[in-house]
């Protein structure tokens, strides 16, 4: 087994893209930009949200509203530090009858 060739690794590094499948087929995927500059070019798709001071910049897909269908939500929130993707927080979407 071998990895990327040296020139391809030098150009693209370890990761060249990140996507999340949000449905039954590959066509139901959401591409998560690898840089904050790239995600900022898509304000109709990604919403910048505020979190704790000095934490990475968080984004959510779209803008959730009360009564929104859970199947329209993307359960991932990319985080950017220094302009680059540094993590992705994930959420479990489920209907529950347990009291909060």
Plain-language structure description:
The protein is an alpha+beta fold and 100 residues long. It has one domain (6-90). Helices cover 12% and strands 28% of the residues. The protein is built from two helices and six strands; from the N terminus they run αββαββββ. It has helices spanning 6-12, 36-40; strands at 19-21, 29-31, 46-49, 57-61, 76-81, 84-90. The strands form two sheets. It has a four-stranded antiparallel sheet with strand order 3-4-5-6. It has a two-stranded antiparallel ribbon with strand order 1-2. A hairpin with a 2-residue loop joins strand 5 and strand 6. It starts with 5 loop residues before the first helix and ends in a 10-residue tail after the last strand. The relative contact order is 0.16.
């Amino acid at each position: 087994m071998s990895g990327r060739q040296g020139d391809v690794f030098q150009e693209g590094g370890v990761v060249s893209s990140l996507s999340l499948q949000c449905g039954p087929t590959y066509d139901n995927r959401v591409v998560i930009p690898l840089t904050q500059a790239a995600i900022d070019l898509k304000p109709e798709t990604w919403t910048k949200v505020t979190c704790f001071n000095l934490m990475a910049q968080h984004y959510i897909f779209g803008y959730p509203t009360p009564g929104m269908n859970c199947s329209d939500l993307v359960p991932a929130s990319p985080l950017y530090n220094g302009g680059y993707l540094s993590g992705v927080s994930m959420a479990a979407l489920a209907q529950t009858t347990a009291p909060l």
